[in-house]
Amino acid sequence: MKLDVVTIFPEYLQPLRAALLGRAIDRGLIEIGVHDLRDWTYDVHRAVDDAPYGGGPGMVMKPQVWGEALDAVCTDRSRLVVPTPAGRPFTQAVAREYAEQEHLVFACGRYEGIDQRVFDDAAQRMPVDEVSIGDYVLVGGEAAVLVMAEAVVRLLPGVLGNPVSAEQDSFSDGLLEGPSFTRPEVWRDLAVPEVLRSGNHARIDRWRRDQALERTFHRRPDLLDRLADELDAHDRTVL
Ligand code: ADE
């Protein structure tokens, strides 16, 4: 998979080359390109923004600069991802969909956003997704790209040491993951739940499912509403 990012703050994307993503690059599983949007400006000030039509605060990023940048970076096999608080929610399901793509291009806007015609134009040649990583406002799309890239790359075959980790994630069965424990058996007077030391795997699986249900009920009841049809009779007694 190839990931390209266009931004006015290329240095902000350095962490893409660290830790899990860095190892995936070293092992040839992904390729990453970070591009400075200002490389496609031609004026002395290297301006990337201008005042908004219709007035109002802030500045809007110019279509000419973005148009040329995307012409240079995208191909006919790209999917364009635009992080914006006005986008559709980025979820684990979207991460799984992106993990199937050959080429993701992230366009990081700053200020009040990018001229809408940039996306309307690109959409004639490739899928374009405006996506939000949560209901809060960041200063720009760069931090959102770091979040999305990590969520996607860890799903690629060979990236995680143990692929079962990705299958057991919170959200992979629609529930939050329950608590985990390791040695010692008792720590500061707190004992590991007996069932986990029982060696009875059917009981352990049932207990883990119950914990996941309870945690989801308390922390994210909205997730349970979506799962309602898949809960069995025992699940319902837990809730
Ligand atoms: N840019 C600014 N805020 C954002 C958010 N919540 N998600 C994605 N991109 C953003």
TrEMBL record:
Keyword annotations of the record: Cytoplasm, Methyltransferase, S-adenosyl-L-methionine, Transferase, tRNA processing
Q: What class of enzyme is it?
A: transferase
Q: What reaction is this protein's catalytic activity?
A: guanosine(37) in tRNA + S-adenosyl-L-methionine = N(1)-methylguanosine(37) in tRNA + S-adenosyl-L-homocysteine + H(+)
Q: Where does S-adenosyl-L-methionine bind?
A: G109, I133, G134, D135, Y136, V137, L138
Q: What is its main location?
A: cytoplasm
- Any idea what job this protein has? Specifically methylates guanosine-37 in various tRNAs.
PANTHER family in UniProt: TRNA (GUANINE-N(1)-)-METHYLTRANSFERASE (PTHR46417:SF1)
Query: Protein name, please?
Result: tRNA (guanine-N(1)-)-methyltransferase
Q: Provide the species name.
A: Prauserella halophila
